[in-house]
Amino acid sequence: MAHGYWNDWYFIWGWFLWFGVCFLLLSNFGHWFYSYRSNQRHGLHLQKTALDLLNERYARGDIEQAEFAKIKLDIADSEQSKKAHPIRRSDPA
Hints:
Elements: H1 8-45, H2 50-60, H3 65-84
Helix pairs in contact: 2-3
C-alpha cells in the first residue's frame, strides 16, 4: 500500500536533510571554537615583556651569561627610570 506523497523515497531524503543541518551546525561551532582559540594564542605573543624575550634568548643559547646579566641590568634600570620619571605631555602653546 502506497502512502501517497510521503512514500519511502521522500522519507529517506528527509533524514539526509536533517543530517546535513546537524553537520552544518556542528561544523560552524567547530570553526568558531578553532578561530576563538587561535586568536587567544595570537594575543599571548603581544604580551611578552623585554625580560621574557631576554630569558628566551638566554635559554636558546643565543647570548652568553655575562651579556645576559648586562642586558638584564639595563632593562631593570630603564624600568626604574620610567617609574621615577613618567612621560608628561605638555599642552601646545
